[in-house]
Amino acid sequence: MSRPDRTLTVRCAPSRPLDPVPPAGPPAVIRLWHATTERLLPHLPELVRVLDPEERQRAGRFRFAPDRDRFIAGHGLLRHLLGHALGLAPQAVRMARGAHGKPFLPDGGPHFNLSDTKDALVVAIGGADELGVDIETVERRTDHEMVADHYFTPEEVAYIREGGDQARRRFLTLWTRKEAVLKASGVGIMEDLHTLRVLDGEQVLRIRHPVFVREAAAAYHVSSFSVGPAHLIAVATPQPHATPLLHDARHALGAGR
Fold this sequence. Notes:
Layout: E1 6-12, E2 16-17, E3 31-36, H1 37-40, H2 44-49, H3 53-60, H4 65-86, E4 96-97, E5 103-104, E6 112-117, E7 120-125, E8 132-137, H5 144-151, H6 154-161, H7 167-185, E9 201-207, H8 210-215, E10 219-227, E11 231-237, E12 245-248
Parallel strand pairs: 1-10, 2-10, 3-12
Antiparallel strand pairs: 1-9, 3-7, 4-5, 6-7, 8-11, 10-11
Helix pairs in contact: 3-4, 6-7
């Protein structure tokens, strides 16, 4: 029996810089709350207090302190942001997980997503549309050629190899786009990323992974941003979205001024 397949359209806007603005800025469908883990360390006692028992258990299972601190910072920040959106105390926010682990609000509320990298994190708060977000550190140490050969399309591999001293940045830009699309679909990582082409412009793809075929929207719109000199962020939604607003995550904790 042949595997099911169908088309998927992916529209990727060229990457561009995104500068932070105060949270009291103009209305936005998507807001990105970003900070380095180091800047959130002074808030860890406050952030760990709002975690639920399961989150505290997960935090306690990390072997290394930097990983544990990043988990606490990200999930505590997420609770503060969702609590503000819902008019609830952070610790009163109730979350559930979909079939593939993506968290959501079972009692209703905005769509959201959390991503972290070795030294930073970002929380995306949206509206009624599913969304996915991914962040990477520009100086991430990885064998990008080996990974690209395994997970990227031939066109993407050629694009990376033509980048010269920008090859690593090109690789990470494409990687964040792939992750953002998968997270928007609720699937998470899958083994055949090489079928998901995310170059600039519109591409109509044929997808065959059974779970992705079932869960993915008909199309995804992806925007990519450089945030300062160190980080790349991608956002994906099934419907076109306006440029997100970027905020210093410490503002959500009454700091960052």
